């Protein structure tokens, strides 16, 4: 069955920095943890924040998700210029898997060595020399791919059909070299949580990758209790936010918001009999955005001017992307 995904393309004017002008960018590889500024388990909002901070590097970004059933398939942030993408669990929106699918477009730095990119082939021999001995991998005969596993890290090597007999599980001599003296070049690198013994490769096995456990006391996916018309209560942190609280009160209880945005008024509402054309305008209402809590807080700016004391009418918009109600 074919699943139709929604694609969003974020593209900025080309402003490549000097470090990327001569070839692939260089990102630090952290097996079982992440690559560059992206760490396994990070919320998708933090990934977007990293992208926004480095627009000269991440100037072409594709966002893919299953529009009809958004909780069924991964949310994927892809960087086609750099040959890798990030897979986020659709329920928690936390990073569960990093896949480098075009090794020539991305150079990885591990310890003091570089691998990948247009000038440093990621051959089986090179990978084995850099990461050290490991147990024999597994051969996927249906895909013609040999997987080599390290904790939180795997490499996929395409095997020519004439050499498939050299790659039976447990029988291949490592590092893998063919009778003609050549060695395969990796076609995909997967980075996943190393706190379990799961082995993640291409195909269906990538579904085994899960985001690492949340640290103790984390506010992410925190249970929130709602008393309609009165307050909301955060079960882990113990904060109470009553209706009628001021922005200063909210700031004190929940900390600095991730963002502050002014609310737009519906275009179809703003017109009059003398001028029926739709108009766009900003009203005085504004949001405190707490993306990592899955929560937006709306203040009524028509009654009080923006960010002036003493009190504001507090309205709560609970976005169900990461908050459970009880």
Automatic annotation (TrEMBL):
Pfam families: PHAF1. InterPro entries: PHAF1 (IPR005373), PHAF1/BROMI (IPR039156). The chain crosses the membrane at residues 110-131, 303-320. It comes from the Eukaryota. The keyword Nucleus does not apply. The keyword Transmembrane helix applies. Keywords: Membrane, Transmembrane, Transmembrane helix. Belongs to the PHAF1 family. This is Uncharacterized protein. The lineage of its organism: Eukaryota, Viridiplantae, Streptophyta, Embryophyta, Tracheophyta.
């Amino acid at each position: 069955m074919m699943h139709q995904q929604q694609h969003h393309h974020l593209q900025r004017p080309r402003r490549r920095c000097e470090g990327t002008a001569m070839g692939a960018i260089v990102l630090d590889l952290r097996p079982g943890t992440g690559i560059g500024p992206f760490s396994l388990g990070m919320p998708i909002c933090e990934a977007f924040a990293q992208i926004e901070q480095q627009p000269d590097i991440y100037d072409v970004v594709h966002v893919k998700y299953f529009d009809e059933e958004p909780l069924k398939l991964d949310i994927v942030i892809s960087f086609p210029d750099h040959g890798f993408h990030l897979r986020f669990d659709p329920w928690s929106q936390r990073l569960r898997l990093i896949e480098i699918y075009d090794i020539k477009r991305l150079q990885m730095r591990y310890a003091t060595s570089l691998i990948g990119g247009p000038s440093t082939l990621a051959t089986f021999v090179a990978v084995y020399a850099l990461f050290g001995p490991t147990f024999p991998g597994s051969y996927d005969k249906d895909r013609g791919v040999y997987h080599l596993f390290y904790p939180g890290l795997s490499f996929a090597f395409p095997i020519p059909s004439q050499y498939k007999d050299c790659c039976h599980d447990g029988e291949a001599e490592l590092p893998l070299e063919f009778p003609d003296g050549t060695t395969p070049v990796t076609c995909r690198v997967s980075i996943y949580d190393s706190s379990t013994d799961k082995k993640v490769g291409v195909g269906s096995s990538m579904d085994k990758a899960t985001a690492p456990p949340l640290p103790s006391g984390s506010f992410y996916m925190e249970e929130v209790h709602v008393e309609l018309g009165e307050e909301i209560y955060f079960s882990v942190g113990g904060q109470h936010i009553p209706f009628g609280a001021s922005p200063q009160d909210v700031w004190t209880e929940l900390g600095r918001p991730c963002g502050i945005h002014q609310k737009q008024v519906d275009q179809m509402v703003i017109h009059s009999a003398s001028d029926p054309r739709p108009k766009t305008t900003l009203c005085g209402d504004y949001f405190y955005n707490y993306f990592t809590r899955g929560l937006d807080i709306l203040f009524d700016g028509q009654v009080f001017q923006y960010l002036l004391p003493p009190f504001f009418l507090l309205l709560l918009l609970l976005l169900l992307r990461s908050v459970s109600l009880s």
